[in-house]
């Protein structure tokens, strides 16, 4: 389930804002992050399975004062702009939100060394 998390962080400079954004997007499950509010003191994080308490604790330890403002569910948007001639929606080539990675398969190679002849076969 996607959720939207809003965290108020005391950020006074651009350096602390960029550091807070790096921390926010580094947490597992985060899909997007943005600065909100009049003075850009709130971080809005959208993701699936994001631990809001863990994110707030990380920001508190590395930036400063952090307060969890809200956690709310986000509804899924349907992609209706891709339609074929009959009006039915086409499926995307990947499954869900997980990408499929191909692992190269290597065939085993066997090298055989021939022993050197002890005597010359021509003579």
UniProtKB/TrEMBL annotation:
Residues 2-71 form the HMA domain. Coiled coil: none annotated. PROSITE patterns: HMA_2. InterPro entries: HIPP46, HMA_dom. It comes from the Eukaryota. GO terms for molecular function: metal ion binding. This is HMA domain-containing protein. It comes from Jatropha curcas (Barbados nut). The lineage of its organism: Eukaryota, Viridiplantae, Streptophyta, Embryophyta, Tracheophyta.
């Amino acid at each position: 389930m996607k959720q939207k998390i809003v965290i108020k962080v005391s950020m006074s400079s651009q350096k602390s804002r960029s550091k807070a954004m790096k921390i926010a997007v580094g947490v597992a499950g985060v899909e997007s992050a943005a600065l909100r509010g009049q003075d850009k003191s709130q971080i809005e994080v959208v993701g699936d399975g994001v631990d809001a308490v863990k994110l707030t604790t990380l920001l508190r330890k590395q930036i400063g004062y952090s307060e969890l403002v809200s956690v709310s569910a986000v509804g899924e948007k349907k992609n209706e702009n891709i339609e074929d001639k009959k009006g039915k929606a086409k499926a995307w080539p990947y499954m869900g939100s997980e990408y499929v990675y191909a692992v190269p398969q290597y065939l085993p190679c066997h090298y055989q060394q021939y022993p050197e002849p002890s005597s010359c076969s021509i003579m």
